[in-house]
Fold Thiamine pyrophosphate enzyme N-terminal TPP-binding domain-containing protein.
Amino acid sequence: MDQVKDEFDLVVCRHEGGASYMAQAYGRMTGKPGLCMVTRGPGACNALIGVSTAAQESTPMILIIGHVTTSTAGRFPFQEIDPQAVYGSVAKWVGV
């Protein structure tokens, strides 16, 4: 990330849904992937609307979701979600 940090404009948003729409709009207008980073759980769910729109319009977009530690994954820690289950039907690729 240090090598490419000057290529990104950081925009802080008040809601993950708005942030994902901004990333989707950037991708649609420029043809380059829009990048959005959100927190796990509710943040990831709120961002789903922008990712779904990007999928429907074939817009390049990357969403990075914060996740729980490996040692607590699958043990229902605070605000854990299963990204594959939530995003698997709308995203081209989901990795954990």
